[in-house]
Every structure is written in structure tokens, then in C-alpha cells.
Fold:
Amino acid sequence: LLSCLCVFRSIFPIHPSFRVLALAEPPVVGASSSSSNRGQQQWLGPELLTMFLYHAVTPLAKAEEMGLIHGLAPNVPKEAAEQLLHLTDSLRRTKDPTAQSLASSLSTRQLLRICRRLSQYPEESIAHAVNKACLSRFLPSLARASLEKSLTNSSIQDTPDPAGQTRDYTCVVQEGVLTIGKVSTPIYSPNQKMKVPDVLFYDNPQHMMVMEDMLKDFLLGEHLLLVGNQGVGKNKIVDRFLHLLNRPREYLQLHRDTTVQTLTLQPSVRDGIITYEDSPLVKAVKHGHILVIDEADKAPTNVTCILKALVESGEMILADGRRIIS
Structure:
């Protein structure tokens, strides 16, 4: 009887206010439940049908999406926004599966990013912004050709800047103001100057163009992702970029054995005793430093999902119960 009482003490009834709100994308019609591709699984089966009441959220209409963009990016050129939405609407409505896969890269969130940047830099090419959002450089030839055809049908042409070939891409620091190409910003005054990177770097036009592009997004408050082959100088560009901005950095390298706990806590030995302290991620959040995540593509999916939530909403629950809030 005593053992039974001990067992029942650890059983807690569900509170009557408890509810589960689940979010999911619609299942693919005709796909099998044992499909090897997770995106093609028929997850909506008889077990789930009896557990939930379903509410379908339809995509925004073209006019509604235009109103949302003009509300959040009021200074965007009207013609550019209309061309962008016409392209997105045509990709979403097409029956071509290759073109439909490109439409997911032009979500409402991505359209807002593009329009915010166009509102600050209206001289930029819409085709360049779309190609960058769809990662056209890394697409298969068939998908790239489909994107180029859709851009042509929407009257979006990539007009090269005639002055771009002869423009002098240099960086100048003068009177506390950094200028890379045509973009300028005041230099940051850090409290911990020892964390500002300082590396041997030789300026060249290609890297200067990349850093000018990075500075535009950095000033808009966006998080940056550098994608490139091994050995092209991604780490060098980041270190040089932060050195010019005079920004302290925290460095975190991911690998296939990275866990959520090691993402937020790191062990260290002090006086022969193992202690756990905040990881570079938590330190960067607390002190306002720049977090450089190296080899981000090597981490497991559950780790990148945690980082995705932190980047999107600015919130994250730490392993010891603390919470990062925006």
C-alpha cells in the first residue's frame, strides 16, 4: 500500500485550462506516409484527425500582401513592389513544380526584407534581390532557367550598373565614420576592445563589394549569412568587416556533435574543478556583441531549429531555465 501511495504521488492531473495549439503545413496530396522525403510525408492520418479541430489559413491575396508591404515598408518604390508581387503571384499560381518550389523562397517575410532594402536603396536591381533570395547561383540549371523565364515574363531585367565596373570599391575611416563603397556608418565605440578582431587582410574589389552589400543589410538590422565554397575567404571577410566597424565578436563553431546544451553552456576547468559558464551565444546576447557562427551547416537539425527561433523571434530558452527575450 505504501509503494502504491508513492507511485500516485508523482501522478498529476491535467489542468482544465491546458490546450495544445499545433502549427503545420498542409500535407502533400498523394504522398505516402513512409516517404523518405520528410517534406512529402502524408502526416495527416486517422490518429491525428480525431485529436484536433482544424482551422485552415489561406494565403494572403495579392492586394492584401501589397497593403501589408506598403504598411511595413512605406517608402518602397510602388513600381518595384508591383513587379515583385506580380512575379511572386505568377510563381505561386503556376502548375510547374519547379517554379512552385521557387515560390517558397519568396515568402511574405522575404518580400518584406527585399522591400525594406529597396526603400533605403531604390537604385538597386530587383532581379539581383530576387536571385539572392532564391540562391539562384546554387540552383540546378532547370530551376535557374525557370526563374530567369519568370523574371522576363514579369518585365524584371537585371540592368548592370555602367559605373559599377569602373567604380572604386574602397573602405575609408575618417572622423569616426566608416565608408565602404557608397555606404557610410559611424564606428562603434566598444567597452571590450580586446574582442574586436584584427587580421591580416588585403583589400580587393570583390571582397569590398561583398562587404558593402553586408553593410547595407547590417544597417537595416538583419542577420547575415555568408555562403561560399571552402577557401574563398568567408572568415577573413567577417573579421575584416567587424574590425572596420570596431565591433566586438563572440565566436562559436558548430559541428555534427553540437547539442542544444553545448549551444548555451560551455564547460571550463578552474582550480581543478569543472564549472559551466555561459556560451559565446549567451555572452553575445547579454553584452550586445556580434555572434559569429562558423560551420553553421554542420550542426544537427534540432540545433539549427533553435537558432532559427532565436533569429526569427529573438527568444530562446536556455538549458538552466533562463529565457532570452527580444
In short: The beta strands are 171-174, 177-180, 183-186, 249-253, 265-270, 273-278, 290-294, 316-317, 323-324. Residues 35-39 have pLDDT under 50 and may be disordered. The CA atoms of residues 2 and 228 lie 64 Å apart. The first strand starts at residue 171 and ends at 174.
